[in-house]
């Protein structure tokens, strides 16, 4: 069975996913086209249901910190594929143009050593970095070594460039407060633009805290790296070690919780995160808030500490697309041993993440491999979510989801969809551990007022103690309008699907449980 440790090279994810999909021999182009067609067809249904149903709350007195999050009539996944077989969101061309512009605007290249920095893991290099960075328009090179600092603030038009993960290390000083970022942009409220950070390990130095102390200070602080109100940014080839809150955060100036249908002002946009590793995070490895046009690719997050939460109640996810995020693409990422592998969500008093598209993901031993939900908008007595809509996912792998002490009362699941409208999953492979006790629980749950959900091409194997492969929950909080097509289970599964009798519309096709063969063990 596949095992992904802290040193896993996420640049191998693409080939791993291709190898694991070989048995179901679709090409990437066919998979993308299938997902696009399913998404387009179901978006017509979504638009007809929703176009006139959203009555937005007016927050005139709060307009300085939030803005209305309007409904967007989304009918495309917006994936493209170039002649070199690379998959990317269509808008990435705009970001690439800004990357070239960043280099054209650079006036000089300096080495932080020339400003007095010492990479011995002891000296305080805060002033050396401040002088080297200056007012920006500079490439600041950092050689191999461990450079201690009390935090680095980057102005616009700046590149911070190390020698690679494990070679160049930045570490927070022992005297830093819990609220400090290791790296962030200089002006969270006025905003910054065109900033790139590449090639280094970021150590938040959690050892400076009391072991029993909660590791985060609140809002968007306490992380290894945060872009807050940044337009055009790049986080490339980085490793985040033991942050108090998040490894990598694409954020607004502040996280706001002023109601579904609102989004915080000062969000970031056009940000690319690639080849990132992270572990030991107090909350999430990679997270986004109130920001848009974000591309997360070839990254691996694993083994959170959960220390920003009360013990046993840690919603620590490998990758979390959170409150107010919009237009987010994830490509060939992986997660391991988190509460959630990929969670797309929002708190009850914020807008849900919307228009999120995933291609290729490896989830290994996460408690909930894929978890899509808008908290507080699930029950029949709750208000219906105004913003929880538009998710597509292609070629997902859920490998042996297991119980985790991070969230002590949560049962393992491969996929959970709650409260979201217009969700297309095309290609989900669920591989179990025959020795693990799943205690009769379902592997995939469509529940809590989820609407217009399509599962296509699902393979389930090696679960000897689970309940149904797919369960569609009924009752007063029932799901509705669910299509299950091409669900193939091996003989260990007793029941492929379990659809409550009060579901108003459920379509099934090609549901198969394979017969046991003489060679089975």
Automatic annotation (TrEMBL):
InterPro entries, A to Z: Pectin_lyas_fold, Pectin_lyase_fold/virulence, RHGA/B-epi-like_pectate_lyase
Pfam families for the chain: Pect-lyase_RHGA_epim
Keyword flag Ribonucleoprotein: no
Keyword Nucleus attached: no
Taxonomic superkingdom: Bacteria
Keywords: Lyase
Record-annotated Rhamnogalacturonase A/B/Epimerase-like pectate lyase domain positions: 110-321
GO molecular function: lyase activity
Annotated protein name in UniProt: Pectate lyase
Biological source species: Fictibacillus nanhaiensis
């Amino acid at each position: 069975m596949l095992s992904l440790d802290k040193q896993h090279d996420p640049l191998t994810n693409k080939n791993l996913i291709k190898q694991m999909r070989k048995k179901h021999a679709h090409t990437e182009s066919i998979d993308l086209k299938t997902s696009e067609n399913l998404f387009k067809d179901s978006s017509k249904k979504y638009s007809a249901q929703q176009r006139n149903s959203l009555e937005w709350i007016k927050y005139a007195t709060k307009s300085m910190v939030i803005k209305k999050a309007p409904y967007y009539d989304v009918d495309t996944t917006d994936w493209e594929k170039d002649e070199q077989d690379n998959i990317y969101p269509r808008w990435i061309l705009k970001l690439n143009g800004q990357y070239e512009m960043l280099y054209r605007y650079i006036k000089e290249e300096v080495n932080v050593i020339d400003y007095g920095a010492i990479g011995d893991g002891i000296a305080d290099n805060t002033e050396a970095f401040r002088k080297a960075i200056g007012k920006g328009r500079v490439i600041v090179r950092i050689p191999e070594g461990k450079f201690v600092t009390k935090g680095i603030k980057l102005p616009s038009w700046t590149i911070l460039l190390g020698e690679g993960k494990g070679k160049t290390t930045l570490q927070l000083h022992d005297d830093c407060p819990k609220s400090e970022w290791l790296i962030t942009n200089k002006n969270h409220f006025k905003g910054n633009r065109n900033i790139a950070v590449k090639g280094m390990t970021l150590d938040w130095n959690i050892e400076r805290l009391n072991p029993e102390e909660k590791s985060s200070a609140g809002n968007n602080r306490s992380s290894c790296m945060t872009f807050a109100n940044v337009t055009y940014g790049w986080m490339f080839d980085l490793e985040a070690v033991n942050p108090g809150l998040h490894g990598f955060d694409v954020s607004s100036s502040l996280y706001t919780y002023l109601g579904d249908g609102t989004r915080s002002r000062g969000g970031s946009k056009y940000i690319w995160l690639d080849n990132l590793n992270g572990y030991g995070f107090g909350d999430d490895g990679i997270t986004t808030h109130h920001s848009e046009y974000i591309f997360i690719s070839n990254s691996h997050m694993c083994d959170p500490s959960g220390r920003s939460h009360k013990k046993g109640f840690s919603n620590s996810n490998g990758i979390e697309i959170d409150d107010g995020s919009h237009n987010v693409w994830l490509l060939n990422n992986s997660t391991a041993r988190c509460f959630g592998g990929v969670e797309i969500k929002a708190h009850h008093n914020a807008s849900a993440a919307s228009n999120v598209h995933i291609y290729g993901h490896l989830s290994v031993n996460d408690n909930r491999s894929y978890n899509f939900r808008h908290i507080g908008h699930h029950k029949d007595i709750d208000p219906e979510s105004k913003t929880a809509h538009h998710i597509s996912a292609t070629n997902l792998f859920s490998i042996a989801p297991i119980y985790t002490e991070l969230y002590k009362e949560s049962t393992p699941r491969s996929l959970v969809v709650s409260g979201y409208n217009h969700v297309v999953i095309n290609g989900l492979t669920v591989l179990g551990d025959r020795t693990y006790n799943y205690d009769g629980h379902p592997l995939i749950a469509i529940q809590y007022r989820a609407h217009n959900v399509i599962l296509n091409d699902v393979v389930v194997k090696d679960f000897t103690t689970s309940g149904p492969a797919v369960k569609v929950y009924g009752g007063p909080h029932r799901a509705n309008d669910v299509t299950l097509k091409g669900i193939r289970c091996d003989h260990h599964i007793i029941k492929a699907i379990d659809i409550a009798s009060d579901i108003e519309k459920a379509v099934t096709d090609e549901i198969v449980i394979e017969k046991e063969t003489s060679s089975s063990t």
